[in-house]
What does this fold into?
Amino acid sequence: MHIAMIGAGYVGLVSGACFSDFGHQVVCIDSNAEKVASLNNGEMPIHEPGLAELVARNVGQGRLSFSSDLKSAVSGAKVVFIAVGTPSRRGDGHADLSYVYAAAREIAGVLPDQAVVVTKSTVPVGTGDEVERIIREENPDAKVAIVSNPEFLREGAAIRDFKHPDRIVIGTDDARARSVMAEVYRPLHLNASPILYTDRRTAELTKYAANSFLATKIAFINEIADLAEKVGANVQEVARGIGLDNRIGQKFLHAGPGFGGSCFPKDAMALIKTGQDNEAPVRIVETVVAVNDQRKRAMARKVANAFGGNIRGKSIAVLGVTFKPDTDDMRDAPSIPLITALQDMGAEVRVFDPVGMEQAKKVFENVTFCDNAYRCAKGCHALVIVTEWEQFRALDLKELSTIMACPVIVDLRNIYSPEEVRRNGFLYCGVGRPKSVAY
It folds into this structure.
């Protein structure tokens, strides 16, 4: 099947590459000519494990290509996916749908007869209705169907998530479109991937509800972690105790510095705005966003508390600045408010991240960028683990104790055993674990 993917960003590129790996003919279209040229040269605009190899294989076998020529790409496609960005709109937090609507207008006049237009971007309820209105306004004779097919990809595991999904949600009331979408995803039938067919608005709401629920689990366990510290309990054992209940589940119950990334903060805010606009406020999600925002900056106070509240003139090493491992994505990363707060408290900050350094340099000012964890820690008064990269899970604690000015580790991801760290002479501060005595 011939597929046109409008947008070669994270969702469009991963989806296009995976569809081509299924055997479909895919053209990814992007208005950024430089990005298209880079992709044609095998250069990936994002860090995603396995993506470069997947793209190279399918380009080499002639199933995947990249272009800025929207007209020729769309005119030969049976299915056209819209996978452009929907960032939070500056000023009010609503999803910015300008790129989605612009794509709809651009493709309207060149859509082949009987084409299926699929919104892959994360969009508020009712967006599909507006996309359909725009296309029919621009091309009244167009015999097309508009479908919602939200993505559920985790950065760092996107290819596996696409090929082995928990579910595929397809929103349409059109029988022909349903048949076409079943053909698009037919290769996944071997994996017995469940396909949920709904109406379009239900599919749109499902995406926001899913991400907001997961964000709520994270915010909940973070608040339990704060309580655990106060009462002398261990949040990791609490998380195991409640996670073994099948009604709750163990995922997203890892206490830490708060959630970030391109999805949870943006999607939760968009759901809040949708609720407000429809006089059905989602108070729980409103609280989740507020609690999460406050938590990120509060992590700096955890570092300061290890020194009795004063870190002026201290050097702090920060390991990990991306919002999660296996990505270079800095969007809404907990490291940003943390580092800003540390600087506001008078600390000097040193930074290392295995993949995110180039992106970090675009975000941070007046920090020292280091090329490995040990150079970052050398001479510092505290080592703060912000992102749980595998490279940070087995640091040489004895070496760290000899090169640091003070033996203090603030582990915001609880990746170390407190007993092991303390045996090597460190003061250890985790999240939701009994406190150490201040240094």
Summary: The longest helix spans residues 200-231. The chain has 17 helices and 14 strands.
